[in-house]
Amino acid sequence: MNDRIKGKNIIITGASGGIGERMALKVAENGGNLALIARRLPRLEELKQTIEDRFQSKVEIYPLDVSDYEEIPGVFQKILNDFGKVHGLINNAGFGIFKEAHEVPFAEVKGMFEVNVLGLMACTGEVLSHMREQGNGHIINIASQAGKFATPKSSAYSASKHAVLGYTNSLRMEAARYGVKVTAVNPGPIATDFFSIADESGTYVKNVEKWMLKPDFVAEKVVDALFTNRREINLPRWMNAGSVVYQLIPSFVEKVGNKLFFKK
User: Fold this and answer.
1) Active site residues
2) Residue 4 has what DSSP assignment?
């Protein structure tokens, strides 16, 4: 059991599936208490029951679409009332759609920014003053390698994750003065139902399936970083190396990798 996590109260958004669900189980396994947020109430109820059957952690569920900004303050106030203190927030809610820029309806672009960026910022805003006042806390934002290395068919999604990284990097410097830690997580493709929306044709999954990250592996890396000074988690390492090379010689990478990048 991780003593840094034991007894701590942690909020996870997008908790009803994928790495959100796996992170919740890992936190509970390490003795942390959980406030779980997601749109799908039945999935949250199932997860709550699983955690209560297997662990001693306190767990409460809060159905919420993080793009419903007017609802966020009330939900977070209820969490504070239920738990007293919030020690950690993992902003995991998000989605992507892989299409060329001219094919993406503006409504889908707007939806990605509302959830991936504005929802994340709104949720963070609801805990930030609380964490500053108590002099500690940890905010973890799930971004993406796409935010560091944009490729074709992910223009809007990459833009939203670029925004998450910009926000996270600024927030980290601001929050450090008050004892609040901030970490960005940049995974490559993960084998979850994310791709049921992002890749309706199945082409991308088929092309990269053998390289996709396992959700339990990603969840373990994130939960292990809770309440540490980890600045970023970049997975897998080889993909992050590609992002670094891209920053150094972007024109070369775009020219050499162009055909491969279109395999989404």
Assistant:
1) 157
2) T
Q: Return the bridge partners of 60, or none.
A: 35
CB proximity list for 106: less than 8 A, separation 6 or greater: none
DSSP secondary structure of 62-81 = EE--TT-GGGHHHHHHHHHH
What's the token pair of residue 217? Answer: 């592996």
> Is residue 3 classed as helix, strand or coil in its secondary structure?
coil
Fold for 9-261, please state it. Answer: Rossmann fold (3.40.50)
pTM recorded for the entire structure = 0.89
Cα 41 to Cα 55: distance, rounded to the nearest angstrom: 21
Are 64 and 40 in contact by the 8 Å Cβ rule? The answer is no
What is the Cα–Cα distance from 192 to 194, expressed in whole angstroms? 5
Residue 227 backbone zone (phi > 0: left; psi -120 to 50: alpha; other: beta): left
pLDDT tens digits for range 189-248? 876 666 555 455 555 555 555 557 899 999 999 999 999 999 999 998 766 665 665 666
* φ, ψ for residue 36, nearest 5 deg: -105, 125
Per-residue pLDDT tens over the stretch 9-60? 999 999 999 999 999 999 999 999 999 999 999 999 999 999 999 999 999 9
Contact (Cβ atoms closer than 8 angstroms) between residue 239 and residue 15: no
Stated as kind and residue range, the H or E segment containing 234 is strand 232-235
| In contact, 14 and 217? CB cutoff 8 Å | no
Residue type, 55: F
Phi and psi at residue 140, to the nearest 5°: -115, 120
The DSSP call for residue 213 is B
